[in-house]
Amino acid sequence: MPARPRCVVAEDQYLLRDGLTHLLTAHGFDVVEAVGTGPELEHALREHRPDVSVVDVRMPPTNTDEGLQVALAVRRDLPGLPILVLSQHVEQLYARELLADGAGAIGYLLKDRVFNADQFIDAVRRVAGGGTAMDPEVIAKLVVGNASDPLAALTPREREVLGLMAEGCSNAAIAGRLHFSEGAVGKHTANIFAKLGIVASDDTNRRVLAVLAYLGS
């Protein structure tokens, strides 16, 4: 990830768009464009191919799911383009489609559950780095909606660890949340990779593949 990652912001409400722009700029991002409509977002994504984009779901002209539909369309043409979705609620079908290409670099946060700037900026950085940043409520909806269960071989503790991986937690953060050592987390993650048939490669990629299996994409 570059020293100042290039970012596109897509939000139809001016005050929130301006606030996101200032927040990201203050934390080391270069906001190359901030837009308020779906067509503007599509143009910005295709022109800039940014290191990360923060995208509202509901944007003009339809004010339904314009932002998410544009993000999906552009990612089909530019696989792996990093997208962090901000939404008032879980669009289950579209969230699955965003994850379906297996490329990672996807986040889905609910606006009213982002509690501070550090939490948000950390999520943006994880997505820009090729990882995932999923709100626990989004994870719960996707897992419940998954008819098949690729995780039957995992223990309850391994599922718990994998759920925190899906949120984007590091091994150290998982250890803190579950109150055991970082070494124990490492053993659990190794078991998860083995049981899911994820072969040795870059650790970030293995985590993304495990998360995608967890979400049933």
From TrEMBL:
This is DNA-binding response regulator. The modification 4-aspartylphosphate is found at residue 56. GO terms for biological process: phosphorelay signal transduction system; regulation of DNA-templated transcription. The keyword Manganese does not apply. PANTHER family: TRANSCRIPTIONAL REGULATORY PROTEIN NARL-RELATED, TWO-COMPONENT RESPONSE REGULATOR. Signal peptide: none annotated. Keywords: DNA-binding, Phosphoprotein, Transcription, Transcription regulation. It comes from the Bacteria. SUPFAM superfamilies: CheY-like. InterPro entries: CheY-like_superfamily, NreC/VraR/RcsB-like_REC, Sig_transdc_resp-reg_receiver, Tscrpt_reg_LuxR_C, WalR-like. Transmembrane segments: none annotated. It comes from Amycolatopsis coloradensis. GO terms for molecular function: DNA binding. The keyword Nuclease does not apply. Residues 6-126 form the Response regulatory domain. Residues 147-217 form the HTH luxR-type domain. SMART domains: HTH_LUXR, REC.
